């Protein structure tokens, strides 16, 4: 289960269902299953307090990850300072949304076993972050195909085949992503969307 909480700040405008599905898809590429993951969005002052209390570090940071992993199941508490995320976005010339998603997945990559402190590890982490951010673009296509696969539509058209080909091309471009695994991750989202849209789509010809 992936939960999102705040402490002293407003909840950021993220799509929780899509973000959770994305996190699971990224973990899957490393052979990991998602256990209990808790995101705590907070301020600079709160993350400084956590850094001092638990890590004896007297400085601000964007994320602190507490690792509770067991075997191939990743679990942890991830504190994210939205203040530092915003500052870093401005410094690096990135959008706030992109930088926030980079930090969100940064903690997951740590839980998957990727480090960024040793020689050459920062570059490895950045490459992994970039691959994960590329995967985020697959969400819409994967959910769409998941709806088809759960039987929302009995009419498979050329448009459906085009979407399938596009997903395969996109996953090939990202690298290390199995389309079948990705669709399996998004299947629950597809089921929920199919239930909500079934009546409306039944009247459409595709």
How would you summarize the topology of this molecule?
Elements: E1 2-7, H1 16-29, E2 33-42, H2 44-55, E3 63-67, E4 73-81, H3 82-92, H4 96-111, H5 121-136, H6 139-149, H7 158-174, H8 179-202
Parallel strand pairs: 1-2, 2-4
Antiparallel strand pairs: 3-4
Helix pairs in contact: 1-4, 1-8, 3-4, 4-5, 6-7, 6-8
Task: Report the order of strands and helices.
Answer: EHEHEEHHHHHH
Low-confidence stretches: 189-206
Major sheet characteristics: 4 strands, mixed
* General form: globular
What does this 3D model show about the protein?
This protein has 206 residues and is an alpha/beta fold. It has a 4-stranded mixed β-sheet, with helices on both faces. Helix 1 packs across helix 4, helix 3 crosses helix 4 and helix 4 crosses helix 5. The relative contact order is 0.13.
Features:
single chain; 206 residues; alpha/beta; four-stranded mixed beta sheet; 8 helices; 4 strands; 59% helix; 15% strand; globular; disordered C terminus
């Amino acid at each position: 289960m992936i939960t999102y909480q705040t402490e002293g700040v407003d909840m950021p405008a993220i799509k929780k269902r899509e973000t959770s599905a994305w996190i699971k898809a990224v973990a899957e590429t490393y052979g990991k299953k998602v256990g209990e993951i808790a995101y705590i969005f907070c301020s600079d002052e709160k993350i400084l307090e956590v850094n001092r209390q638990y890590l004896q570090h007297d400085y601000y940071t964007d994320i602190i990850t507490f690792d509770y992993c067991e075997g191939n199941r990743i679990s942890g508490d991830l504190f994210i300072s939205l203040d530092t995320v915003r500052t870093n976005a401005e410094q690096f010339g990135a959008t706030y949304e992109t930088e926030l998603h980079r930090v969100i997945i940064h903690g997951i990559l740590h839980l998957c076993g990727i480090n960024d402190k040793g020689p050459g590890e920062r570059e490895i982490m950045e490459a992994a972050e970039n691959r994960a951010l590329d995967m985020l673009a697959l969400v819409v296509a994967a959910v769409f195909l998941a709806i088809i696969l759960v039987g929302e539509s009995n009419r498979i058209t050329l448009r459906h085949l085009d979407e399938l080909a596009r997903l395969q091309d996109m996953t090939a471009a990202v690298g290390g992503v199995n389309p079948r695994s990705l669709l399996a991750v998004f299947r629950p989202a597809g089921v929920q969307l199919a239930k909500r849209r079934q009546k409306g789509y039944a009247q459409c010809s595709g």
